Amino acid sequence: MAPTKLINIAGLTPVDDPEYRYKMPVVFGKIEGRGNGIKTVIPNINEVALALHRPPGEVNKFFGCELGAQTSYSSDNDRAVVNGAHIDAVLINMLHRYIEKFVICPQCGLPETDYKIKADVIWHKCAACGAKEMVDMSHKLCTYILAQNKKQKKEAASKEKGKDKKKSKSREKDTESADSKTEKKEKKEKKGKKEKKKKKKSSEDAEDDKTCEEEDAGVDDVSVMELAINSTREFIKNKPNATVDEIVNFVANQQMASQLRSFDKIHIITHALLTNNFFISNEIEKYASIYENIINDNSIMERHLISALENLCVSTPKNFPIMIKQFYDEGVLEEDTILEWAGEGRTEYTLDTVGEESRAFLRAEAELVVTWLQEAESDSDDE
Fold it and tell me: Please, which of 42, 178, 201, 267 could form a disulfide with 80 given CB 3.0 to 4.6 Å?
């Protein structure tokens, strides 16, 4: 039997590097049956899925979604079936499309992602660069992924419940066999003494835990973010002639070194650059090219910029609509992004430090800008 050919794991853009360390076997199919019963079996689905760190059933389901065909997968014998006759070239092309959408990181392009599911939204969490990006939730495969996630959680909860039940029964049986009638009274007295000691110990431990929590509070995400902001501020202060690329690279290095999320670059640069004198000092106009470089026409990053401005303007809400308008004038924020933000309530973009009342107040402050954009859009449609 010939050895399995390995190729570079890549999306729709090929990776030609022969030293590339991410490899996978070439997917192939075996056509069986005839007429209406014709189908394509994928013998190496398990090996392919293992290389991509994804469940084989999910990979197989993607083929069905893209080809408009029914699929089935049996974990007992690793048999993956796609209805219809599909040649290897089609399967290979479909697999690269799957990798592009559901495997490689949108930020760094490496196949180092795992799914993080929150409130029925699927996110890529990249172990290589730390980015957290939403997958294409409009794809049919997302329904399958969410259903599988719920099924796994339900099974895990059921197993845990069964274990607890067995442990409880075992403890009851052991206690009954070990205790005699003459020992119960003595054990009761000893138990009372132990409870007193335990309460005293718990009280002491609680104090220790409180102290530990207070010590740990100094190394949470907020403190790490503050360190990154202060370092960026110092860098810009000490290097006033730094180029846009130098500043952007410094911010990216701070984000990765601090193990913050990819979009936290926007929060770092916003708090490092903008002050209450932003209007007089033309700060937004001065630094617009830095924001354009970091956002890079990504509407999700634009939403995080609005989130950063909300957080920045909680104590100075009158500044918020002016900042929104200036970023729009500089081409950093798009009209659709601002109107999308205005039409929603609190979302996953809103920081915990921005309370519901503060967020509503900032939205009210921005009403004039929002109305102006809506009227401009309406005039454009009429023309």
Answer: 42
Overall fold of domain 221-382: 1.25.40
Q: Can you give the pLDDT of all 383 residues of the chain as single tens digits? A: 445 689 999 999 999 999 999 999 999 999 999 988 999 999 999 999 999 999 999 999 999 999 999 999 998 888 999 999 999 999 999 999 999 999 999 999 999 999 999 888 999 999 999 999 999 999 999 999 999 999 988 888 887 777 666 666 666 565 555 555 556 666 666 666 666 655 555 554 444 444 334 333 333 455 888 888 999 999 999 998 999 999 999 999 888 887 888 899 999 999 999 988 887 878 999 999 999 999 988 989 999 999 999 999 999 999 999 999 999 999 999 999 999 999 988 888 999 889 988 999 999 999 999 999 888 766 655 55
- Give the separation between CA 107 and CA 307, rounded to whole angstroms: 20
Phi, psi (rounded to 5 degrees) for 281: -85, 0
The one-letter code for the residue type at 85 is: A
* DSSP per position, 108-164: T--S-EEEEEETTEEEEEETTT--EEE--TTSTHHHHHHHHHHHHHHHHHHHHHHHH
Roughly what angle, to the nearest 10 degrees, separates helices 367-382 and 356-365? 50
How many residues appear in the chain? 383
Rounded Cα–Cα distance for residues 310 and 255 (Å): 20
Cα dihedral 245, 250, 251, 253 sign: positive
- Give the closest residue to 100 by CA, choosing from 132, 71, 65, 124: 124
Report how far residue 292's alpha carbon sits from residue 246's, in angstroms, rounded to the nearest whole number: 14
Q: How many other C-beta atoms lie within 10 A of the C-beta of residue 178?
A: 9
Rounded distance between C-alpha atoms, residue 273 and residue 271, angstroms: 6
The residue ranges of every structural domain in the chain are: 6-147, 221-382
Question: Which CATH code for domain 6-147?
Answer: 3.30.30.170
| Distance separating alpha carbons of residues 6 and 112, to the nearest angstrom | 18
pTM above 0.85, yes or no: no
Q: Which two tokens stand for residue 157?
A: 């909860």
Residue partners of 129: CB distance under 8 A and separation at least 6: 105, 107, 108, 110, 112, 256, 262
